[in-house]
Design goal:
With 156 residues, the chain is of the alpha/beta class. The chain has 5 helices and 6 strands; from the N terminus they run βααβββββααα. The protein has one domain: Mannitol-specific EII, Chain A (3-Layer(aba) Sandwich). Helices cover 41% and strands 21% of the residues. Strands 1, 2, 3, 4, 5 and 6 form a 6-stranded mixed sheet that branches. It is globular, with a radius of gyration of 14 Å.
């Protein structure tokens, strides 16, 4: 599984406007909700409620400046993701108590939990690389962020 299977260039925000955890989640949900009918249009509030319910179980801030909020969404036809970068960092109650800068919201169909787990594992593995995290933070714009992730994801 490749990240490009579920994250598209149009689903990347280089400079998140939100300054709180919930505001960031709202922005990311908006990207996925407005992706168009080919992606199976889903209401942004349903996506947000899914992420907020998951965060109540414990933060999805995995540390090293990365969070992967995720959830399974009834009616979603395929795996989808949105990525946002906050240069300032946001308190996301990460495992290491440091600000979070890179957010990858992952949405999976309610059926097929295996797909969801494979995608989470792939994202975690790719974002464990400090060089990639630095490259994402140094990227000029959303297109460059996507290119950096895609290049890293292409490695065996």
């Amino acid at each position: 599984m490749k990240i490009s299977d579920f994250l598209k260039p149009s689903d990347v925000i280089a400079d998140l406007a939100g300054t709180t955890a919930q505001a960031v989640l709202v922005e990311l949900c908006g990207l996925v909700a407005h992706a168009g009918p080919q992606a199976g249009l889903i209401d942004a509030q349903i996506l947000l409620d899914t992420l907020l319910a998951r965060e109540q179980l414990g933060s999805t801030g995995i540390g090293d400046g990365v969070a992967i909020p995720h959830g399974r969404v009834p009616g979603l036809p395929s795996l989808r993701a949105a990525l946002g970068r906050s240069r300032a960092g946001i308190d996301f109650k990460a495992a290491d108590d440091k600000p979070t800068h890179i957010f990858v919201a992952l949405f999976a169909p309610a059926s097929g939990p295996g797909l969801h787990l494979h995608a989470l594992a792939r994202l975690s593995r790719v974002f464990k690389d400090p060089a990639l995290r630095d490259a994402v933070m140094q990227a000029r714009d959303a297109a460059e962020i996507y290119q950096r992730i895609d290049a890293e994801d292409a490695k065996p």
